[in-house]
Design goal:
Layout: H1 11-29, H2 32-52, H3 63-92, H4 95-100, H5 108-134, H6 143-170, H7 174-179, H8 181-186, H9 202-209, H10 212-224, H11 232-259
Helix pairs in contact: 1-5, 2-3, 2-5, 3-5, 3-6, 3-10, 5-6, 6-10, 6-11, 10-11
């Protein structure tokens, strides 16, 4: 039996929660998605710590502490491909047309996928963090610093999720929908995620120091180390919020065009 909201004002929240529940059921019926999203970043972390770590000079004694922020961003980027693929599958399956004939909030399907992305990525990040603890990650950060880290990671996830929405709605194939995440996954490798930017050649260093991943990585790294984040935190927030606003605006335009 369907439970209807008592007040029409609560209708959008009811619709979004219904779509979230639907998407999360799909996730838990196919746990290989979360497993796949976590395995690759953990493999990268083990590779860099135990194979390359001894040859990389970062000025820190614990390389996994230096490495972890970039690994978390790679995991989020990997998860975005599945968000785009799930949305594309719904579009191809005629779900938009079916829901358009029903009394539901027009954007509830999108928000269901967006919130599912937040929840599933949070699960993946927790698993990766536990793996990092097993291989030596330690943090003196206090509660406020950890909350700030969670907030930045959530903003970054939302920013990429709305880009994934654009890809899922615009793609002509499921492979095309997922492929947009490849450049995003590659970005941390040209940043300060694995090595200090000072060790890079001039043009590469200029790009690395002025792309969003570096400021986000530096902010998270400082917070987890219990150190002041300085102006980097404002740069990181500006990148995340700027990408989020632009991606959301474009995604809604694409969605309205698709459902017109």
């Amino acid at each position: 039996m369907n439970i209807q909201p008592e007040n029409a004002k609560n209708r959008p929240f009811f619709d979004v929660s219904t779509m979230l529940g639907r998407s999360m059921r799909h996730i838990f019926r196919s746990l290989d998605t979360i497993i796949t999203v976590t395995i690759m970043p953990i493999a990268f972390m083990l590779l860099f710590v135990y194979v390359f770590g001894g040859a990389i000079r970062t000025g820190t004694d614990n390389y996994v502490n230096y490495l972890l922020p970039g690994i978390l961003l790679i995991a989020i980027g990997t998860g975005m491909s599945y968000t785009a693929a799930r949305l594309f599958a719904d579009k191809q399956g005629g779900l938009f047309e079916r829901f358009r004939s029903m009394p539901i909030a027009p954007s509830s399907l999108l928000w269901g996928h967006v919130l599912t992305s937040l929840v599933s990525n949070a699960i993946s990040l927790i698993v990766i963090l536990l793996a990092a603890l097993l291989i030596g990650f330690r943090s003196p950060a206090g509660l406020l610093a950890w909350l700030a880290v969670v907030g930045i990671l959530a903003l970054f996830t939302l920013s990429l999720t709305w880009i994934a929405v654009i890809a899922g709605l615009s793609a002509n194939s499921i492979d095309g929908a997922a492929a947009f995440s490849y450049p995003i996954i590659f970005l941390p490798f040209i940043s300060s995620a694995f090595v200090p930017t000072a060790s890079m050649p001039g043009p590469v260093r200029a790009f690395a120091e002025n792309q969003p991943v570096t400021s986000i990585v530096e902010t998270i790294r400082a917070l987890l180390a219990g150190q002041p984040a300085g102006t980097e935190i404002w740069t990181a927030l500006a990148w995340c919020l700027g990408i989020l606003v632009v991606a959301y605006w474009l995604a809604m335009r694409v969605y309205k065009r698709q459902t017109a």
